Amino acid sequence: MMALGLVALAPAAPLASAQAAASRFLGTISAISGTTLTVKPTQGDARQVEVPSTAQLERIEPGQTNLSAAVPMQFSDLAVGDRVLVNLDPNSTGAAPQALRVVAIKQADVAKKQQQEMEDWQRNGVDGLVKSVDTASGTVVLTRRVAGVQKTITIRITPSTTLKRYAPGSVRFNEAQTAPITAIEAGDQLRARGTKSADESELTAVEVISGSFRNISGTVVSTDPASSTLVVKDLATKKPVTVQIGTETEMRRLDDRTAQFLAARLKGNAGGGNNGGGHRSDAGGNGTGAPAGPPHGGGLEQVLDRAKPIEVEDLQKGEAVMLVSTQGASDVTAIKLLAGVEPLLEAPASQDLLSNWSMGSGGAEEAAAQ
Fold first, then answer.
1. CA 252 to the chain's CA centroid
2. Can you give the pLDDT at residue 130?
3. What is the tens place of the pLDDT at every residue in 294-338?
4. Which of 99, 126, 202, 290 would bridge 197 by S-S if both were Cys, CB 3.0 to 4.6 A apart?
């Protein structure tokens, strides 16, 4: 965040730029001993710096890129985990370099900001599949299934809206890149936050993030835990697809009861609240002819988030899986994979469920963690 401000402040001449870079660095405090800070830069080894009483110590809010907005602070206010920009004294002669100025972003301030933004994403955010894009008017129409009914939401893009696009093979918010509205296409998954209309059919966006992913429903042909891969026969193309399971892949398995419940909900046979909210379970069922809801209720995405985590070795040959992956014809990287889905494959809206889950769960936390 503060690095953006540094770019604007850097001298134009290459030599001056190199000298400026050598005299300051950005990193995270990993230890404090007396008046010495150990700072781990974004790249490279940890560095120690002595902070004399004459050093200028300042604090800046998360997200602020203008260093003139920094306010004074005390050395005792610094803590392990704080992000700091250190300007070094070129005339220091001690074993450890001395700091002329330390500008800190407090870890506690970052956590507070993340919590506030996460709550804002949850309260004022929407997600779904892109139905259409009108670049001239700056509108994007989303579709998503709510309580068994297909709904549309119009996203209005303004000149002040922040637009980002997921990097290839990733759904990590911090890896997303700025992209124009023309990068958004029908079929993309999109998440936005902003101001909703009274009936929640429209949202004027403050922030939008989108991406293009592949949804696959199929049966497991083989697994290779050693290489973290499996081969799935795509039910749509009837062709095998090699699926790579990465460190960021989320894998879960539905129990039979929850799978039956979700299948009934997706077929529109059960009532419910917003976002496909589940019924509380009870011994007598829910009176709709559908299975009683999963044990803790909650929206469909929340139900999926509570499903049991699994590994590649837990998958069996011939069992059905649904997954969201990177784009690819024969080789893909799974972003999220769901097993125990045999009942869901009969529901036409099952892909809508998986699409919304891929960005709807955890998206707020990812977005806030910046």
1. 18
2. 93
3. 333 445 566 777 888 999 999 999 999 998 888 777 888 888 899
4. 202
